[in-house]
Design a protein that fits this description.
- This protein is mostly helical and 160 residues long.
- Helices cover 64% and strands 0% of the residues.
Length: 160
């Protein structure tokens, strides 16, 4: 993701709506970015080492936090730590990921969903939404695995 430092700050400090606005402003063709996650002519989008590293870190954070969230045993501190971990991975991704512009536009949709989940997990949508935030991040990570070529990617099983 070839983005300016301003986008990094937006992601670290703002709401998902600002992330979407930054994603739209990042589009080099002056059109708004894609509104729906899609494959690349039926194939998964390419990735790079930075993206794979960041998404693997997000998947690890989900795997550590989801069981406690699902069982009602996660504490506010657990959710806050989860949000910080995912945000750090997204920040790394933005600083280091270099994708084809069309793949990048698709990734912006995943990032917006990740950050929306972080916002909920950190209690910004109410205390009762924290566990849902972890699930939202897991769903975004699973969508990434369905749309991006990441060898060995395993989807997270979600609670029913």
């Amino acid at each position: 993701m070839k983005t300016p430092t301003a986008l990094l700050l937006v992601l670290a400090l703002s709401s998902p709506l600002a992330v979407l606005a930054a994603a739209d402003s990042h589009d080099s063709h002056g059109k708004s970015g894609p509104q729906k996650l899609e494959l690349n002519a039926g194939k998964k989008w390419g990735t790079d080492p930075a993206l794979r590293q960041a998404m693997s870190g997000i998947r690890k954070s989900v795997a550590q936090t989801l069981p406690a969230a699902h069982s009602g045993k996660a504490t506010p501190a657990d959710y806050d730590a989860f949000g910080r971990d995912v945000t750090a991975q997204v920040t790394y991704m933005i600083e280091n990921c270099k994708l084809d512009p069309r793949a990048d536009a698709q990734l912006h949709l995943i990032v917006a969903d990740l950050m929306s989940g972080v916002e909920a997990a950190q209690g910004k949508q109410g205390e009762k939404k924290r566990a849902e935030g972890v699930v939202m991040v897991a769903q975004a990570a699973n969508a990434y695995g369905r749309h991006f070529d990441h060898a060995g990617w395993q989807a997270t099983r979600l609670p029913h």
